[in-house]
Amino acid sequence: MQKSALNEHSGSTDHTTACSLNKQQLAIKGHTEKAKEISSNKLESQLVVVFDMAKRMIPCHQFVGQTELLRALKAPDFISTDGIYRHSDSVDDMERSVESVLLSQLDAKIQESEFIGVIIDETVNITVDKKLIVYLKLENRGKTETCFLGNFDVDDGTAKCIFAKMSEQLQKRGVALSRVLGLGSDGASVMTGNRGGVGTLLKTHSPFSTQVHCGAHRVALVALDASKAVEAVAAFKRTTTSIYSYYKHSATKTKRLRNVALDLNDDDMISLKQPCAVRWLSLQRAVDSIQLNWPALVTQLGKEAEGNAQALGLHREILTYQYVAWIHTLADVLPVMTKLNLVFQKDDVNLSMIKPMVRASDAALIQLRDAPGPAEEKFLTECQDGIHQNVKLTRADARSVQAFKNARERYIQHLIDALHERFPDDTLNLLSSLDTLLNPDQYPQEKESLREYARQAIDQVAGHFGEEKVDEDGVVTAPLINGSNFRRDAPAVMTALLCYGGLRFTGACGVLIQDMAEMYPEWATLAKIAVVIPVSSVPAERGFSLQNRIKTADRSRLGDVKVTRLMRIASCRETMDTMDFKSAATYFNDAKKRRK
Predict the structure, then answer these.
(1) Are 557 and 233 in contact (CB under 8 A)?
(2) pLDDT tier, 3 (very low <50, low <70, confident <90, very high otherwise)
(3) Does the pTM of the predicted model rise above 0.70?
(4) Angle between the N-to-C axes of helices 251-265 and 231-248, in degrees from 0 to 180, rounded to the nearest 10
């Protein structure tokens, strides 16, 4: 081609037009990419709104109102209505997209956790559907996390039905039952029954699994057992419940009581509380409110007693020496049980907390049995000649006082006995052995004493995890650890953990998994098992509370899948800053074409 021809073409109309078109194409491409970016930002902003609504349990039909509020506030992505979805189906799809991201994250965590703990519980929802809630306790690099798996419909409450549903949902997420080594529940017979409970059925698939009765439930049962055993405490609860009911159903009476409290104390009254059987240790809150409001109750019920048989009866009851004495005794005793219960409600509770906290509570109860606590001591000092806070108490004779003392001692002894019965050493021996081996905080300081200190625990753990299991059909399951190597390495591992200084159960397990896995694989495996064994089913209880806040009387038509989706979003650890909304937008766009 000649140079003159190129020069001639460069000045031609065709060449000029082609160059112009190229510039236009580049401009169009730039505008298109900008429009896509704007559209993508708008979608992600709407996903943020949907995510926040689910977190705060705002019904999805209010999505349009939320976007209109943002438009009124001139939020950049909502100033124009272009690209803003309004149909409820689109909002539903956005919720699904957020859930898809959370499920993909859950699947990744499940794959990373070699062993898994399962927390289950069953109840009914507001529409009287039988529900099974399942949480997973997972481990990754020595750190544990409890994740919501789902809230599922079950046909009935039998162990076979519950186990079948649990197995089905675990398999959907790629979890082999052999990986499930811990099962936490409320201790109901359907869960823990030796012959046909869920835990027994699990053992046929996972012979090394351990089932644990929730510590918080045990503590609540301790208090319940003791109160049932002593009639005087049961009578106190009945009177306290009657007082609560008397004022709950009358705004006029409550206002009068509040005015009396203001006159007596120059302060507003504390709301009366109900001792509720389904709420753990709610009696303490009821006792605290009665103790603070007692002078006002005596005054107001005394005024209302004339012509009101119920007020007369209540007034007579709260004036007795026994009732007032029980207020102060329980004000000392119940906090001991409440503190123990709250330990098992912590998110990071582990098996190392069981023994020391139970022993501490036992020691505190023994001290209260043998001598009055601060509140009771103050009452005994101030109550002279049967007069308390300038009020003459009835039935304050020596015989009645002695009867109270006898009942008081019986009640506290029942608490101690029930604590031993609900937390027996022989049924917690495997968990105690794990704590003995993996909690350097309890090691003897003399290294020479380590072998003797851990001998029984080593035998227990090696016998459980280090020997093959043979079922009734002759199927053999290989051990999870090499028992010989585990025993051989015990002195070296425990000495190393002791040398770290200041390690406790969680820290020691992290060190074994992170730093010592190659040198001492049996001990690292044991640590991975120990950290996923759930000692509390509190997450399931919180899950049901969350379910009841989502599926209310006004939203009773929400389906099983929808409720589970909203529970998953509301309970996840992700925040608006950490949630992957770009991935959620990808899921949303890939789902289907939609009209805005």
Answers:
(1) no
(2) low
(3) yes
(4) 110
